[in-house]
Amino acid sequence: MEPLLITVTPVLILLVLAVVSYNRFVAQRASIDATWANIEGELQRRHDLVPNLVGTVQGYAVHERGVFDQVTDARARAIAAVPRDVPIEQQARAEDALTQGLTSLLAVTESYPELRSDVLFRDLQRQLVETEDRIAAARRLYNLEVAAYERRRRAVPSNLVASTAGFPPQRMFEIRDAAAEHAPHVAP
Amino acid sequence: MPTTATASSPGFWVILVLGAVVLLAAWAVQERQRRQEKAALARFLGRHAGWHRQAWPCGVRPDMLVGRFAAMPRGDRRYGVEQAVGGPLELEVDGQAVVCEVACFRWFHERRRRSRNSRGMSTTSYERQRELVVLCQLPVHTHRSVSIGPESILGRIGLTRGGAQLESDAFNRRFRVEGRDRELVVRLLSAQLQEVLVTSFTGRSIEFSDDLLALSGTPDHQDTSLAGVVRTYPALVQDLRRLLRGIPHSFWRALRPNEADRSEPPPTGWDR
Lengths: 188, 272
Fold this sequence. Notes:
The complex is a heterodimer. Chain A contains 7 helices and no strands.
């Protein structure tokens, strides 16, 4: 009886540790998915804001067609990069292009004081910056989750569980801080 | 019968005179110290227009502060504020000059200590513990509290990880961050602020609760031209300024009331 116990007990302990480690990986994956869903929701909100913003600016700055086309194209590419099968880096570059387009659009508005004082425009710009703030926070939360997951996926002995159970690597989501570029300038 | 000093013996008078001299000297030293502290307090108040001694820091009763901040515990018997001074101060909040109510004080609480003497009898004594605090009334409400305090010894050597973890390992080892709203926590603790806290605020506590911000702990420099606890107050105010300057805009934007929902005018200097 005793030799059996001596053999079985360590195996059981290892099995329990492996199950605990596996469950932690599952929880981390769920957390990564949840934070990613949060980013997608906020990106979607930003995509939805763009036509309204372009429409409002067009009402005042009719001669800036090039900028409007740039923003509209960038938005279309960013929407096309949302599906899951698109690599995360490609999605990040598409969002960066949209950020750049929006920066150009907001730069154009500097030449139109009436537009800057338009209540609708100011409200849209505020909504844009708030959305971009939420994107930035959600992106950092996602990257923190990914960093913690990757740390465990590579560390001994949890890497054994990760490789056996086939937990895939996760990529960070790196984009430009759009809110800092689009926030209204504050006079000192 | 052993001989003892009586009123008629010269030994008695020598002891009495010596005792009186010692008492007088102690009183004189204490009195000098008290006067120096009073003068230092007057000098400090003279530098800040509108500042005065306060019984309630920022107008908040001590029983409304106790337990609300980790730096202001209840203790086992008495608690309260000492040497509280405060008043309006112009600070930089979200890149704008805003006048806020600020108070510097020492929070005290008494901790029970039980000990046994040689005859096995237990005695209870109370030890007064003190913490330096600068309290600031912000023009916005955080709604949910965020607390950044020193990490435990085990956390500092990397054996345990409690609270929210951020990108900087140096920061995670020095600070424990507690906050139910994780989005607000990451908005507050930008990479730059993490660095500022690691370099200049290690060992200190920063707590947000509603519209109050409490920065506690002893600053690493003092104003030697002042005396007593007041010599730490200029550094407390300076640290508060530095901390507020380091807080990212996105944190303030998260707290700013929606313009559409705003029913009353904002505080002075807050309106964009």
